[in-house]
């Protein structure tokens, strides 16, 4: 089911109180300088039943909800304004990739109506929900970044009475961990609860100061290459317990749920790729993220054998580990910026134990655990030197990111917690990989697979994947 919306209003929301002059200039960290401007895109869906329980009603006629929608809109605007006073950099504008001018220009807020009779339940029940329509206008071009808002919101009203709120924060100054801090603070303010979030805006840039001559890198990807399709699966609590037991080993006796689900995905993806290449030995890399959706998109060449013969160009995405608590000394939990460290797991076609490496899930978990631990060690000796050119790879690359344990389902703005939280991808130009989300009860894992069409046809019929993960609406 594809959502079609009509934008009915656009407004700039400014902080409720002006930012003091001495706080107007905020330095970027060297890590922020290398980050893309792309917006972190998360959509919070609230079912009609949730809205009815708070405001009354129940008629599916959209006109009946105008007063309710107006009240929701006003509450969001007022609370966002108050939140931007606390998170004042999100109201500023980028200044030459060196700093943020905290000038209180504000955040964009769009209001939109769903116009194709799509209901919230239609989205929840779809195996391949298309929620691109929930996203505000396309991101600015590279030359416009200095004038672009660092945060944007789109409030989407369904004719059935449901609501979906898309919240964008630029990856230039925020990673997934800080994004979740912002959402937590905003929902607390909207609900009238005591604010428990105390953001820190200088700790990261003090640890990793900006570089004056930081090289300009390509911050977008063209999306050229085979078409990528997405599909979601859900591993519930009982199946997750089985999977963790299956992937355990003497080296990693208690794998995390992210490790276990990632190993399952990778095993299935490698089986599909090997089938596509006729069993040819290839090198594989899992490049991924733990505890955040990373979009550090850098244009690097990855040459690999094409299913048509010859070579093709692809793109590698760099994921990250949330390092705030892992650095020595640690950084504040709610610190602004991209506090991330990358990891990459490689299966080389020259390895003697290649065949077992691509089929043994417990071995894949061990590789994942080792890669993350090595990344943490390396990032405790970080250099602030400008990044060097990337080398070429001859391998298949998969992107991995996890939004688990970010408590996004706690985002109650005054009409209950979300029925579903989804991350908006890049559609058919997404790179192959996996994104993990909490299920609403916090006990299971929702898997979003993005694979080229040929591989997806194989993976979605994989009996091991179907044993652990359900594509059905009943799992939601």
UniProtKB/TrEMBL annotation:
Keywords: Acyltransferase, Transferase. Pfam families: Transferase (PF02458). Gene3D superfamilies: Chloramphenicol acetyltransferase-like domain (3.30.559.10). The keyword Acyltransferase applies. One of its GO terms (molecular function) is acyltransferase activity. InterPro entries: CAT-like_dom_sf. Belongs to the plant acyltransferase family. This is Uncharacterized protein.
